[in-house]
Amino acid sequence: MSTYLLFPTAIGTCGLIWGPHGIVAVQLPESNDSSTLARLLRKEGGNATRDGQPPPAVQRAIEDIVALLAGEHRDLRHAPLDMRAVPEFFRSVYEVVRRIPPGKTLSYGEVAARCGDAAAARSVGQAMARNPFPIIVPCHRVLAAHGQTGGFSARGGTTTKLRLLAIEGVTLGIEGGTLAIEGASGNLSLPW
Q1: Of 139, 164, 170, 181, catalytic
Q2: CATH class of the domain defined by 88-191
Q3: What is the per-residue pLDDT across 127-166, written as a single tens digit (0 to 9) for each?
Q4: What's the pTM value of the predicted model, to 2 decimals?
């Protein structure tokens, strides 16, 4: 049986579901708590209950998510994830992405290469779009080729992605009509 918890953060109410094998899903804020809960429960199939306290490892992950969204650099690689239902390639992508530290980024192609298939950038994008663990698997730290932000499936889309990067200290600035991101691998400029 899975258990859920909604918790306040600097960017709004987030949600998390855990079970006996670790964290099953994470939800970034929606327009209100009811919408956040509804989207969180859809990720898990709607079978989670609200009863129970998080085990220590899950509680630590929640505390670290709250701190990270408040601007502290926190490493969430310790958070126990239940990836039994995640396809094998997606699991390898998520493990690579989990190693990107706060304030840094990689491109979809770089993630693909680190997974052993440099031509799989599009598949990496699909894994990011279906990421059930945003923030813990920091898909906002993965950018498209040629300095494009790429998509972001959370409420607010790429605006939220850029906000999360800014919270982590990725410097955003405008240079010659482009949005430049410092902290990205290489020197990326995003069209403004």
Answers
A1: 139
A2: mainly alpha
A3: 999 999 999 999 998 988 766 677 777 777 778 888 888 8
A4: 0.84
